[in-house]
Design a protein that fits this description.
It is globular and about 35 Å long. Helix 1 packs antiparallel against helix 2. By secondary structure, it is an alpha+beta fold. The relative contact order is 0.29. 39% of the residues lie in helices and 39% in strands. A hairpin with a 2-residue loop joins strand 2 and strand 3. Strands 2-3-1-4 form a 4-stranded antiparallel sheet. The two termini are 25 Å apart.
Length: 90
């Protein structure tokens, strides 16, 4: 299994989860775990996604998610899980 970590942050509004999840589904990326919260109108979500069967590279998936994020008014970052875990150790 190859995983990615997707981080989404921005002003809360309807459709953020649906928009990001739809883009993942279009590319055959499976959500394994998801956590989201809203604090004083600020939306934050972290997803762990299985990308082992993804139709596109992680770089292309990141680009598509960031484009969708712009439409939704949120910032989206996507990291390979190993890179994310390494960054957290620094």
């Amino acid at each position: 299994m190859e995983n990615a970590v997707i981080v989404v942050v921005g002003a809360d509004r309807p459709g953020i989860v649906a928009g990001i999840a739809s883009k993942l589904a279009e590319n055959n990326a499976n959500i394994i775990d998801i956590s989201q919260t809203v604090v004083r109108g600020i939306f934050a979500m972290v997803m762990v996604v299985d990308i082992s069967e993804c139709k596109v590279s992680l770089a292309e998936l990141r680009r598509q998610l960031q484009e969708k994020g712009k439409e939704l008014g949120v910032e989206v970052q996507a990291y390979h899980e190993e890179v994310f875990r390494y960054m957290e150790r620094v």
